[in-house]
Specification:
Layout (H helix, E strand, L loop, with lengths): L2 E6 L4 E6 L8 H11 L3 E7 L12 E6 L5 E5 L2 E5 L11 H10 L5 E4 L6 H9 L5 E6 L2 H13 L6 E5 L2 H4 L7 E6 L9 H7 E14 L3 H12 L3 E11 L2 E9 L1
Parallel strand pairs: 2-3, 7-8, 7-10, 8-9, 10-11
Antiparallel strand pairs: 1-2, 3-4, 5-6, 11-13, 12-13
Helix pairs in contact: 2-3
Bound molecules: S-adenosylmethionine (SAM).
The site of S-adenosylmethionine has 20 residues, from helix 3 and strand 8.
Length: 254
Amino acid sequence: MASYEIIGSREKAIAIVEIEDNEKKRQKEIANEIMKKHKNVKAVLKKMSERKGVERIRSYRLLAGEKDTRVTHIEYGYKLFLDPRKVYFSPRESTERQRIASLVKEGETVMVMFAGIGPLAIAIGKKQPNVKKIICVEINPNAVKFMKKNVEINKLSEKIDVILGDVKEKCKDYYGKCDRVLMPLPHKSELFLDVALKCLRNGGWIHLYVIKGEEEIKEFAEKISREINAKNFFIKKVLPYAPRVNKYCIDFML
Ligand SMILES: C[S@@+](CC[C@H](N)C(=O)[O-])C[C@H]1O[C@@H](n2cnc3c(N)ncnc32)[C@H](O)[C@@H]1O
């Protein structure tokens, strides 16, 4: 059986399926089996590519069900409205979102670079209602539209500011104003470290997401730590990515 993940709610969900070449002839049948097993699944999308480009989106093919693949995903009690065909979203990162949210203290200003449809910001806003402000910068206009909606449906408009544009430009308005910076762009987060450092007010935390081999992560974290003059750092494995390669978050204390 092909592997798949389900995004959405009891009312409407979609399945995203990976189909091996030897199962290709059966793909429609597989899609229908998934829809039969999960009555809430209204459409089945097949992964047709890796995540690519600046926006980190895949190509998909609709194997069965409705053309409208927008869903409202629910995790830890908050709602995330999205269309996987237009934006990045990974339900498997919900535990990591909770970990980050539980680190945020009262009164903090948090910069969420590469904010997508806003799941990190919403997790923080819900878990730490006394956060001062969460600023979200995202370059994909579709993601920004969904993020604005998500801020509204989760009643966080007073806490979360949504900004469309490139982190390199848009963060300038927040230099020296933040206590914590999140950098969830694992393939090239480190290229934006200069911007993250400038965002910090008076020390604070930078959470840098990277994809690295098990053998290289410690040395990599030590190198970055020296470069940015961090006081300390902690490495957290987020998810497996490939054999002996993982997605990590490095929490740098400055
Ligand atoms: C890996 S996704 C993470 C999205 C979100 N933080 C999440 O966890 O679901 C990275 C996001 O960064 C955005 N992005 C890439 N380069 C950017 C840039 N220079 N400025 C702002 N956003 C950017 C992409 O459009 C994409 O939505």
